[in-house]
Write a structure and sequence with these properties.
Chain A: This is GINS complex subunit 2. Chain A: Belongs to the GINS2/PSF2 family. Chain A: It is found in: Nucleus. The structure holds two protein chains of two kinds. Chain A is mainly α. In chain A, 56% of the residues lie in helices and 11% in strands. Chain A has one domain: Methane Monooxygenase Hydroxylase, Chain G, domain 1 (Up-down Bundle), CATH 1.20.58.1020. In chain A, helix 4 runs antiparallel to helix 5 and helix 5 packs parallel to helix 6. The mean pLDDT of chain A is 89. In chain B, the strands form 13 sheets. In chain B, strands 1, 2, 27, 28 and 29 form a five-stranded antiparallel beta sheet that branches. The longest helix of chain B has 43 residues. The chains are: A mainly alpha, B alpha+beta. The interface between A and B is medium-sized, with 23 and 27 residues.
Chain lengths: 185, 1145
């Protein structure tokens, strides 16, 4: 899966916005949205929120977890534990990126949040690499990782599986290598 | 000289602590829940000697170099003092001891434990123990008689006992305390004490007084009390001379009395109001050491330095002290004068500070609240009412310093005290002293004001950017008041020395280039409140004047207010002013309200009526709902709304405090919507108003009328019903004043109400409350009554059904009267209407509009018949099972069949768009007749609610669109239940017909396509019903027939009556007839109607045959289709109904 696809999925998440226009309920295949009353918070998917925000049609209210205190706690927890801790949102990275890119003026301490989320992400990626490393070293047949988000799986999934394939090939080629050689001749 | 209080210091970790002095008074010894005993050289000793005696020390006592402690391992230990070396265990209990004390000689100790036991042990020989049994709960405290004859003890069982130590018998016992099961639950730890020396008196702290009991007789000699003690006393301690008694209370008061004179010589309040749990007098000096439950240690010096020269006894006893305090006598007076003012009420000091910081003259309550000082509020509230009065008096007289000094007791006027008047405010603003504040937050937008070093500016922001873009204004004039509407920004400032008070309007809605105007107030007249309406602005000034301007700046009306203004609000052409009607007492405000309309008809609706506020509250928000109903909110969070349906009374619609999580949380109201029912407000944690940053988010609260027993089904439905009624009042108001309003929403509400009534009816039926059923039916619309009749007869309540049918007949006649009264009006209208016709519409158009209707009519007959069958089937099914599973939902089901018609009518005509993705649309979903009828119900409500919300959006920005005044408004409101369409603000009925004709035609096509599509069917039917309504507005009723016949009689009796009066008279006569007679007329009318119809081409009533046929069909089965009966206004139907009911009996 491409990261863009993961991001696309993340855009379905709901966020709260305060519209500055008045619009009736809109009917979409995915469900009804609205009604939009100026000044009254309403929940919409991220894609719509970003679209409206870009057109300066709304103000975004950041998700509850997008708060310096909470993220610090999460980061510290993540650093303390050896395993993966549950994230506040299954799309925390994507949402952070999207919302901070397009609506950073509505999010207090946007820079700090960006750093904190990046820190958390880095910690988790390090853990992931470490576990992949030990997985390969110990030549385990299977492993179980909890609380991974889609984006995180996506960063390592393709590479790891392909690498394992290659390694498998290399290993299996060691013994029947002769026959392969013989074919060449 | 007053007692000098040294600041408290940390002694132990929090928990129970105890304090005592050593024999010489050279050091203070404390023990605490951290298990340490600390020896302090003095209060400033930063390095006290600590002796660890156990995990927790409950009590300690010190004498003759022996320190005994009661610790958590259930023992009483001895340590040497001052070394602190353990010296053995004196005694053990099965629970820990709560109090240990030495006898006066120091040879014995007494310990009282949580295992109900008291032991007296020789210090030198722990084998010599005496056990006292008798208490039935943990022992709280003990005291040795100085002569070692008696031992007094207090226990959680509520008793205070005196024991004879010799034979361990209980000499006397008083039931004085409140019972409890454990020491931690005890209200007071009740440390009692014998008077040192003679032991003549035993002091027991009982609630707020210290009771003194005489030795041997054991009668209560006297009580020591003081006004400053508001909570139970915890500890008493005698001065070593036995002349003074100190007591500490659980709220931190320490009071010292001279026991001889019973005079209170010292009052002290703990700086943080912690509970005092240890008190000890210095053996030589007039010092009192005290500890609190938070582990702090404090010291009072120079306590009770009285010794008036003439007081011989005292001076004799306290000889030792005299040299120390010579010449202090005069100071004592001063000290005492000051003391009672400041000590009982430290909050007053803080308040005064607040006053200095803020603009003066602000009422106390407001300051406290605006400062967010919730702690102080609680404190003030907790203090006695006397203190509160005193405090208020303080405000009134401007401080006590000017008053001549007096003795310790307060000497004020003791009656009700006037409340300081609430200051004027703008709704939706935060306090003016804040650097960043909201000047207004309403449904249009937000105005913020920044007033810091760099900038003094005003930011205007609109919720809906299509109204106007956000603006930034410099605030050079220092505006403090603002209002915002969809066409203008209004700002105002108070006057200064040089500058007059100014009203500044930015009329951005103006189409010319000059958007701003300013008006100066006359000298010495300050603007105190402003508001904006549609096309006008108003300000109230300090000269009790209200000045009205046009939004363009033309001066309009000016009028005087009966009192100083509190706040104003405008909406459309309505202006609401709230002012001080007089002086309130004991915390209440005394406000009055004026409501006036500044439109074409200038009139006053509320003539300065008193405003209902919660007790001891003040006003915090005034405004109008988006639909234009006046509302206000008081400081207790109660939202009240004008109930126009009940003689303009105020009804509480919401209690925001009930929704708050914390005690100090509040909701800051920013707007009220009646449709949908929304209270928009901002949740504020720990304060009354929100900060500007971070930007607060709006939350929505539901309304709830404070009806009783809303947890029960009945109460809930009653609340819902009346809430729906109250929140529907605005529709009548709007229609009466010629505003546009949302028809579908109204129909929705009516439907909801009728449904609720029907549910209540069914519930009462189930509970066998037939009288209540009739009462409920009285509230119902006639078509729903017929349903009720059916329900009653089906549930075999013949008596009820009979009564209901009587009721139905009465209702019908009433209706006829109402119509009769309007006959004349109608006639006039008819003429009007014809003129309109000839002027505006070609006759061909009318014809064209008529044509399809006829077809529809016929179609409808057929469909009706079909539907009847279907319904019969549907309704028979449960009948077969003998027991209907849920008669309740049954009632709802049938209600659905009839009532929602009008709703569907409204919604289908107003619903421009439908959800193309919605599969559950009624049209494409033919309902199998025998399927659960509830399905349609839910589908209906879904659909209608959808349309309801659509309507809301249309109303937003809402409502104010004056129309051509409708000629028929009166009739419309009178018969609105039955003729929803006539309410449409269309000048000509023909137009309605025509439009409906078209709609019906279209629908017909669809209906044909859909075949048995029930949805099509139904909406179709609805159309036709409406059609009938407009056409056969006045079918010939029995009354009319009767009237025709009897008109001559009436006229001969009263020759000078005009037409209306004749009808009225006829009405009353008709009512005198028996119901049978009336029935005869009704029956006649039915026949007559048929004839009349035959004559009148326009009237497309079912022919007589059809009618008969239908009736016979109905009579065949008991389960007739209710929908048919409920045809609004159909007299014959009502006749048939009653006939039906009679047949039943």
């Amino acid at each position: 899966m491409e990261p863009a696809e993961v991001e696309f999925l993340a855009e379905k998440e709901l966020v709260t916005i305060v519209p500055n226009f008045s619009l009736d309920r809109i009917h979409l295949i995915g469900g009804d949205l609205g009604p939009f009353n100026p000044g009254l918070p309403v929940e919409v998917p991220v894609w719509l929120a970003i679209n409206l925000k870009q057109r300066q049609k709304c103000r975004l209210i950041p998700p509850e977890w997008m708060d310096v205190g909470k993220l610090e706690e999460i980061r510290d927890q993540e650093r303390k534990e050896d395993t993966f801790t549950p994230m506040p949102s299954p799309y925390y990275m994507e949402l952070t990126k999207l919302l901070l890119n397009y609506a950073s003026d509505n999010i207090p301490k946007a820079d700090e949040i960006r750093t904190l989320v990046k820190d958390t992400w880095d910690t988790r990626m390090a853990k992931l690499r470490l576990s992949a490393d030990s997985f390969v070293r110990q030549q385990e047949a299977h492993a179980k990782l909890d609380n991974l988000t889609l984006m995180e799986i996506n960063t390592t999934g393709t590479f790891l599986t392909q690498a394992l394939d290659h390694m498998y090939k290399l290993r299996t080629n060691l013994q029947p290598g002769e026959s392969a050689h013989s074919q060449d001749f | 000289m007053p007692s000098a209080r040294k600041p408290m210091r940390y002694g132990h970790s929090e928990g129970h602590t105890e304090v005592c002095f050593d024999d010489t008074g050279s050091c203070i010894v404390t023990c605490g829940s951290d298990g340490d005993v600390r020896i302090w050289e003095n209060l400033d000793d930063d390095d006290p000697k600590s002796i660890n005696v156990g995990e927790k020390a409950y009590s300690c006592a010190l004498k003759n170099g022996r320190l005994i402690t009661a610790v958590s391992n259930n023992t009483v230990q001895i340590h040497t003092f001052p070394e602190g070396a353990p010296d053995g265990i004196l005694t053990r209990f099965t629970m820990h001891a709560n109090h240990v004390t030495f006898s006066s000689g120091g040879t014995k100790i007494a310990a009282g434990s949580s295992d109900f036991m008291i032991k007296v042990v020789e210090v030198t020989d722990s084998s010599k123990q005496k056990t006292f049994r008798g208490h039935e709960a943990p022992v709280l405290s003990l005291s040795f008689d100085p002569k070692d004859v008696y031992l007094a003890s207090a226990s959680c069982d509520g008793s205070v006992r005196v024991w004879k130590i010799e034979d361990q018998t209980c000499t006397t016992s008083w039931q004085l305390l409140q019972k409890c099961n454990d020491v931690i639950n005890a209200k007071s730890i009740c440390r009692l004490g014998w008077q040192p020396g003679t032991g003549k008196l035993l002091a027991v702290p009982v609630d707020k007084v210290v009771k003194l009991y005489r030795r041997e007789t054991w009668d209560s000699q006297l009580d020591l009390s003081d006004a400053s003690i508001t909570l139970p006393l915890n500890v008493v301690a005698w001065s070593p001379c036995g002349q003074y008694l100190a007591a500490g209370s659980v709220d931190g008061s320490i009071v010292v009395w001279n026991v001889e004179t019973q005079e209170c010589i010292e009052r002290m309040k703990h700086e943080k109001n912690y509970s005092i749990c240890g008190l000890a007098w210095h053996p030589k000096y007039k010092q009192v050491a005290y500890t609190d439950t938070e582990g702090n240690l404090g010291l009072l010096e120079n306590v009770g330095v009285v010794e008036k020269p003439k007081d011989k006894v005292a001076s004799a006893v306290a000889k030792d002290y005299n040299d120390l305090f010579d010449g202090d006598d005069d100071d004592y007076f001063n000290g005492d004068m000051v003391e009672p003012q400041s000590s009982p009420n430290p909050a007053a000091d803080e308040d005064d500070d607040g006053d200095l910081m803020l603009t003066s003259g602000r009422p106390r309550r407001a300051i406290i609240d605006e400062d967010d000082n919730s702690l102080d509020i609680g404190l003030i509230k907790a203090s006695s009412s006397l203190l509160e009065k005193e405090e208020d008096g303080d405000d009134q007289t401007g401080g006590f310093s000017a008053l001549p000094p007096s003795s310790t007791q307060q000497h004020f006027y003791d009656g009700p005290m006037p409340t300081p008047k609430q200051r004027p405010f703008q709704s939706g603003s935060t306090p003016a002293h804040l650097m960043h504040r909201f000047m207004v937050w309403n449904s249009v937008g937000i105005i913020r004001c920044y007033n810091d070093e760099q900038d003094n500016a005003i930011d205007v922001e609109f919720h809906d950017t299509s109204v106007h873009h956000a603006t930034h204004l410099p605030n050079s004039l220092n505006h403090t008041m603002a209002d915002l509407s969809a066409e203008a920004i209004l700002l105002a400032c108070e006057g200064t020395e040089e500058l007059a008070s100014k009203l500044h309007c930015i009329h951005f809605g103006s189409w010319d280039a000059n958007k701003e105007w300013t008006v100066d107030m006359p000298k010495d007249e300050d603007i105190e409140a402003i508001c904006l309406g549609q096309g006008w602005a108003a300000c109230a000034t300090s000269a009790f004047l209200v000045r009205v301007f046009t939004v363009g700046g033309v001066q309009r009306e000016i009028f005087s207010l009966p009192g100083p203004v509190v706040s104003m609000a405008g909406h459309g052409e309505q202006l609401m002013i709230i002012y001080h009607r007089g002086t309130g007492f004991d915390g209440d405000q005394c406000l009055g309200v004026q409501l006036m309309e500044l439109g074409k008809k200038k009139r006053q609706i509320l003539h300065g009526d008193p405003l209902s506020l919660t007790r001891k509250s003040y006003l915090v928000w005034v405004g109008f709902s988006a639909e234009g109903t006046p509302c206000y909110v008081d400081s207790e969070g109660i939202v009240r709304m004008l109930n126009r349906g009940l003689g303009n009374t105020w009804i509480p619609v919401c209690n925001t405090r009930e929704q708050c999580k914390g005690k100090s949380d509040h909701y800051w109201v920013v707007g009220i919507h009646e449709n949908p029912q929304q209270l928009r407000c901002i949740p504020c944690k720990g304060s009354r108003f929100p900060p500007t940053l971070p930007r607060p988010a709006v939350a929505i609260l539901p309304f709830q009328l404070p009806y009783c027993q809303v947890t029960t089904e009945k109460g809930q439905m009653e609340e819902q019903y009346w809430r729906s009624v109250v929140f529907q009042n605005h529709v009548d108001y709007l229609s009466k004043n010629g505003y546009e309003f949302d028809e579908s929403a109204k129909n929705q509400a009516v439907k909801e109400q009728q449904e609720l009534l029907m549910k209540l009816f069914a519930l009462s039926c189930k509970l066998e409350r037939e009288f209540r059923c009739v009462e409920l039916a009285d509230l119902m619309a006639p078509n729903v009554v017929s349903l009720a009749i059916k329900y009653a007869s089906r549930s075999r309540r013949i008596n009820l059904a009979q009564r209901l049918s009587q009721l139905a007949v009465e209702k019908a006649t009433e209706l006829a009267t109402a119509q009769g009264d309007e006959e004349e009006e109608e006639e006039e209208e008819e003429e009007d209407f014809r003129k309109h016709l000839s002027a505006g519409y070609s006759s061909s158009a009318t014809e064209w509009g008529q044509l399809p209707v006829r077809n529809v009519q016929q179609d409808q007959e057929v469909e009706d018949a079909e539907e009847t069958d279907a319904c019969e089937e549907a309704e028979e099914t449960p009948e077969v099972h003998k027991q209907r599973p849920n008669p309740f939902s049954k009632g709802v089901t049938s209600a659905e069949v009839t009532t929602p018609k009008s709703a569907v009518l409204g919604s289908s005509s107003s619903q421009g768009r439908v959800n193309p993705f919605k599969v559950s649309s009624n049209k494409k979903d033919p309902v199998v007749p025998s399927a659960n009828v509830l399905d349609t119900m839910s589908r209906y409500s879904k659909k209608t609610s959808l349309s309801g919300s659509r309507a809301v959006n249309k109303q937003n920005p809402p409502v104010i669109k004056p129309l051509i005044p409708k000629p028929k408004s009166k009739q419309a409101s009178a018969t609105s239940f039955f003729q929803p369409r006539t309410l449409t603000p269309n000048p000509s009925e023909k137009a309605v017909e025509e439009r409906e004709g078209k709609a019906v035609e279209e629908r017909e096509g669809k209906a044909v396509e859909d075949g048995e599509g029930k949805a099509g069917n139904e909406s179709h039917e609805v159309k036709v019903t409406a059609q009938e309504n407009t056409e056969n507005r006045r079918p010939r009723t029995g009354f009319q027939m009767w009237l025709e016949e009897n008109r001559a009689n009436i006229l001969t009796d009263n020759p000078d009556l005009n037409e209306a009066e004749v009808i009225k008279e006829g009405m009353s006569r008709f009512r005198m007839l028996t119901s049978e007679e009336r029935m005869v007329w009704t029956e006649k009318a039915k026949g007559g109607a048929v004839n009349g119809l035959a004559e009148d081409k326009k009237r497309k009533r079912p022919t007589a045959d059809e009618g008969e046929g239908r009736r016979s069909q109905e009579e065949k089965s008991e389960d007739t289709n209710a929908s048919k009966k409920s045809k609004p206004l159909d007299q014959s139907t009502n006749g048939r109904l009653s006939a039906f009911a009679f047949k039943q009996s």
